[in-house]
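Consider the following assembly input.
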Amino acid sequence: GAVVSQHPSWVICKSGTSVKIECRSLDFQATTMFWYRQFPKQSLMLMATSNEGSKATYEQGVEKDKFLINHASLTLSTLTVTSAHPEDSSFYICSAKPGGEINEQFFGPGTRLTVL
Amino acid sequence: AQSVTQLGSHVSVSEGALVLLRCNYSSSVPPYLFWYVQYPNQGLQLLLKYTTGATLVKGINGFEAEFKKSETSFHLTKPSAHMSDAAEYFCAVSDRTGGFKTIFGAGTRLFVKA
């Protein structure tokens, strides 16, 4: 149980285009989903927290107009990188936390974005 | 504000030797503490967690960690390293009162020598 999927697993796009990454909780309802960014050989940096049906909360320094997050349902959150540039190339990881007393978040396998 | 410090970006041990990965945290409220493992180009896998109760926590693959409030530490240990333990390990602290926001340490790369 507690499986989180991400799609696509990797994507290559041209500079200036937009890319959408999906994060799904497959066997549980996620009241909260998190989006992280990980540069090579570095730690995970929290980008934003999203709760179903409400606007995402972005961390300081993360451009909300650049990284659009939509938590449309209790099993799906999407991250859209708008007008992507080479510096947006990174490994993006989502996680999902069930509601209630479960004190754990479950991570997706990550999406490797390369912007040419 | 919360923070996590992992001492040592790289740790090298021989197969069969003790593994000790250090983690110190800072939190203004009682924290949730986690250790995760990450293999190349993959997501994170939970090794173990401390939320409340017993301070010695046992996880998967023979790992365990002890929550020491007085030392604000949550070091990860394994009595005998295996080649398959070679990976990146992250210590993390979550805010139990602030929406479960999680801060990760910088990570420790574990090398296991044959």
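The longest strand of chain A covers residues 30-38. Ask yourself how this observation constrains the way the partners meet.
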